[in-house]
Design brief:
single chain; alpha/beta; four-stranded mixed β-sheet
């Protein structure tokens, strides 16, 4: 369900893996995703009829389990990576086991993150989502995650989820660095953008802020900008799907900020750091640990601390050599090579059937 036309880390990861499999021939990779109609594209992309869930980012809600189960029976996989905990996960797991396949649940998003994206009381939503996760993951053989899934699923991570960097994201010292702070991502409730606007309003130095992306909170954020008197400082720009142009936008920013309190990885932080941009994230954002030296962190949800981190990052000088080394270290080939080794190790240990 989270494979949207304008989604971030999940779609990037899946498409990079499909390209890696096609280029190297090291394994056969099938991507089963929702689409406008049920069809097979190129032999390895299986689209299933679905309804558009959020037009702003192209998310789609799959309809039923029948076509999904038929696809599993047709391709007869050895390992199923269950990325969507809401698309009939227990039926899919049972069908995969009947075919002799191992099932690894990929824990992309925490219940706290998803609850923060819904209007209303976070605690109520988080409780319901945790109950769902525990049931969805009940029969899987292993869990892959970058964060501790135990609070949500009462299961530990057996395999580390790794995300990587596409070749487009590399240092661009020839790009003129501007004075603006850049956010690139979905304009949605859980991304902490209201806290970012409050921090901008409180800044003694009236730095420009660019919000690059689309999402369900676009109109309310524009209203908030007017209320705070920030209309001359805040610019809204549309989603940028071209990787080279996005990398240039990262390199041109004074700093790139991820203000959300619940990022389950924060791929944009890794990509921006690889372009040489100083980065700001919450201290609990997993990718922050990978970009030490290029990141300033703040206490999640604390607007005053966020402003302090932005001010530090704006004074930071880019380090192209370190950024280039980061881009090499986290290239997708390295990431998927390590993932395959992990899965092979679990198969040999008998953790996966």
């Amino acid at each position: 369900m989270f494979y949207g036309e304008r989604s971030g880390g999940i779609r990037t990861y899946l498409e990079a893996k499909a390209a890696f499999a096609a280029r190297t021939g090291s394994f056969e990779h099938h991507l089963v995703i929702p689409g406008r109609a049920t069809a097979v594209d190129g032999g390895c992309r299986h689209l299933h009829r679905s309804l558009r869930l959020a037009a702003s980012n192209g998310y789609r809600l799959p309809l039923g389990a029948g076509a999904l189960l038929s696809t599993l029976d047709a391709i007869r996989p050895h390992v199923v990576l269950l990325h969507d905990p809401f698309w009939t996960p227990r039926q899919a797991t049972r069908a995969a086991h009947e075919l002799g396949a191992a099932v690894v649940a990929v824990h992309h998003a925490s219940a706290s993150l998803q609850a923060a994206g819904l209007p209303g009381p976070d605690a109520v939503y988080a409780h319901a989502l945790r109950r769902w996760y525990r049931r969805a993951y009940l029969d899987v053989d292993a869990v892959m995650s970058v964060v501790d899934p135990a609070p949500d699923a009462r299961r530990s991570a057996t395999v580390q989820l790794r995300l990587g960097i596409e070749p487009a994201f590399h240092p661009r010292p020839w790009v003129r660095r501007g004075d603006h702070v850049l956010y690139a991502g979905c304009l949605s409730r859980e991304k902490g953008l209201r806290v970012l606007l409050d921090a901008a309003a409180a800044a003694a130095d009236p730095w420009p802020l660019v919000l690059l992306g689309t999402g369900p909170m676009g109109d309310s954020l524009r209203d908030r900008v007017r209320q705070l008197g920030l209309a001359s400082r805040v610019t809204f720009e549309p989603f940028e799907g071209d990787r080279d142009r996005l990398a240039a936008r990262f390199a041109a920013a004074r700093c790139v900020v991820l203000p959300g309190a619940h990022e389950t990885f924060g791929l944009a932080a890794l990509e921006a750091a690889a372009c040489g941009a100083p980065v700001v994230t919450a201290s609990v954002t997993p990718s922050a640990a990978l970009i030490a030296g290029a990141v300033d962190t703040f206490r999640a949800g604390d607007g005053v601390d966020l402003l302090r981190a932005i001010e530090r990052a704006r004074r930071r000088a880019p380090d192209p050599a370190a950024a280039g080394a980061l881009a090499v270290r986290h290239g997708w080939d390295t990431v998927f090579g390590a993932e395959l080794e992990d899965l092979d190790h679990l198969l040999k240990l008998g953790v996966l059937p």
